[in-house]
Every structure is written in C-alpha cells, then in structure tokens.
Amino acid sequence: MVGPIGDTRKEIYSRNRVLDRRYGSAHLLYILWRCSFSRVSRQDISREIGIGEGSVRTAIKQLVDLGLADTARKGVGQTPAGKQFMHDLGIEFPGELPGQAVNGPCNVLVIVRDSGHMMSSYISTRDAAMMSGADGCIPFRITDGKCNSPFYDFMGFEYPELEPVIGNYRIHDGDAAIICGARDFPIATVSAFSAVLDLLEEGKIAMPWSCN
C-alpha cells in the first residue's frame, strides 16, 4: 500500500487556499485513508483537503461514532474496523504526479485495486470529479494487459501518455485508476476521491456514513 503524501509539500497545500467550512463523503473517505499509516493531526488534514479545522473535527467525530476511527493526543487513527474497511476497498493514493497528464497544474493519482470491472458508467465517474472542482480527469482500467478509458474511447479523445504511470505505480490487470487535475492539491484530491466514490457506487459498495 502506498504511504501518505510527504510533509515537504505542506507549504504548497496551504498557499492562497481559502478553507471551506463544509465537508462531504469524499472528505470522510480521504480522512479514513489518510490515517491508514499513522495518526494524523487535524491541522494536517485541514491543509491537505482544504476544509476548516472545525469541519475536520466534526468529520472525525462522525468516523469515531461509526467505530472506524479513534482519537488520541497524536491525532486520529483507524480502529481495527476502520483498517478492515479500507483494506477491503483497496484504495491506494500515491498523491501528486510529476508532469501533467490532464488539465490542471496539480495532477493526482488514485488506484482502486481489483475494481476495473466497476467502471461501467464512464461518464458519471469523470463527472463526479469535475463537479468537485477538477479541471480534468481520466478514469482508466487495465484489462488483459491493456489500458483503456471508456470515457476517452466514447468521446474519441487521444489518451495521454500513461505507460510511465502504469509502470511506476504497478497498476495491474483488473485495477481501476483515476487521474484528476486541478489548480491545487486539495481540490485535485477531493475530486479524485469523489470519482472513487462514484466508482464504488457503480459496484454497489455503499459507504457507512451519510452527509448532508
């Protein structure tokens, strides 16, 4: 499993960023993923996904109430139930990519292992990202050793160069992956996790929480 993003980018995340007071299902999913590796502070979460610390606190409480997370002085972490839930989803988030595969100066990659078969509504997965603020998005999957993007095929778009991404991040047969681009890391990240939620919904996998 790919680890969390590095601290060296914190200044980039916070620069000229106006924090939103609200949070949604994509933020909850990111928070639960983010504490897969070690406890993380509310301040770090706030900076990485662009919502205020008050909203982060409320979101964490929702995860705690569901038995998926717990809190301590060192920050929020996963419970055994939270670890199992995230393991079953198979989400990996390498974070920001070098270069620009899709529109937007910040491109991020999210991988959902063994979920390529869920990518049936190619338009809705991309639209979920675009509605969350992405400037560009390419959902793709690996089938019989070949990369294909149902949305790009349907629209007749030329594929960006994906072979280095596929090789570097070991995206295998049956995996689904999504690259989202936006003006900054928080927007790109929330957009990518919004697309993941749409993909999981296509696969009839429901989240254990609800958001207004």
List the helices and strands and how they pair.
Elements: H1 10-14, H2 25-34, H3 42-49, H4 53-65, E1 69-72, E2 75-78, H5 80-89, E3 91-96, E4 106-112, H6 122-131, E5 136-143, E6 146-148, H7 150-155, H8 163-168, E7 176-182, H9 185-202
Antiparallel strand pairs: 1-2, 3-4, 4-7, 5-6, 5-7
Cα distance spanning the termini: 31 Å
Secondary structure tally: strands: 7
Structural class: alpha+beta
Order of helices and strands: HHHHEEHEEHEEHHEH
Ranges where pLDDT stays below 50 over 5 or more residues in a row are 1-20
Main sheet specs: 5 strands, antiparallel
Tell me about this structure.
By secondary structure, the chain is of the alpha+beta class. Helix content is 41%, strand content 18%. It contains 9 helices and 7 strands, in the order ααααββαββαββααβα. It has helices at 10-14, 25-34, 42-49, 53-65, 80-89, 122-131, 150-155, 163-168, 185-202; strands at 69-72, 75-78, 91-96, 106-112, 136-143, 146-148, 176-182. The strands form 2 sheets. It has a 5-stranded antiparallel β-sheet. A two-stranded antiparallel sheet has the order 1-2. The protein starts with 9 loop residues before the first helix and ends in a 10-residue tail after the last helix. Residues 1-20 have low confidence and may be disordered.
